[in-house]
Write a structure and sequence with these properties.
The protein has 152 residues and is α/β, with parallel strands linked by helices. It has helices at 9-39, 47-72, 121-126, and strands at residues 5-7, 73-75, 89-94, 97-104, 115-117, 134-139, 142-151. α1 (9-39) runs antiparallel to α2.
Length: 152
């Protein structure tokens, strides 16, 4: 049984776009490079052939990965009870300051842009909570207490 994989609508569209580019342009482009390199003769010492085959392996791997993700993908919808959900922007108070996080599906996570996965320790602790609630999260520096200030 495959578990659902929750994504934001934007994240799902981005992954679909990447999948389409890989299938429609990148895969054929790599195939042409391989054919061209093969036409040069001996492939055992042909750097272009080796590089094209490596790129083909990467492209095919990513196509397979995206195919699996897209089969399991479910777009998260906003809850009517005002609690944190995948796709929410959450402002919290922690350690003397405020921080804002965007709760996203695991394939979309980018901590440098404050996009945190709903599967991460902080993300999973925030899910289902409401404004005013406090959560405790174990971090490398110790236990951090987050107070939810705003959910959008």
């Amino acid at each position: 049984m495959t578990a659902d994989l929750y994504l934001t609508k934007e994240g799902l569209e981005k992954l679909k776009g990447e999948f389409a580019v890989l299938l429609e342009s990148k895969r054929p482009e790599v195939a042409k490079r391989i054919k061209s390199a093969r036409d040069m003769g001996d492939t055992s010492e042909n750097a272009e052939y080796v590089a094209a085959r490596e790129e083909q392996a990467f492209v095919e791997g990513r196509i397979s990965e995206l195919s699996d993700i897209l089969k399991k993908a479910k777009v998260s919808v906003k809850t009517s009870n005002g609690s944190v959900f995948v796709g929410a922007t959450v402002t919290v108070h922690v350690d003397g300051g405020n921080e804002t996080f965007y709760i996203v599906g695991a394939p979309e996570a980018d901590p440098s842009k404050n996009k945190i996965s709903h599967e991460s320790p902080l993300g999973s602790s925030l899910l289902g909570k409401k404004v005013g609630e406090k959560i405790s999260v174990d971090a490398p520096i110790g236990k951090l207490i987050y107070t939810i200030l705003k959910i959008e």
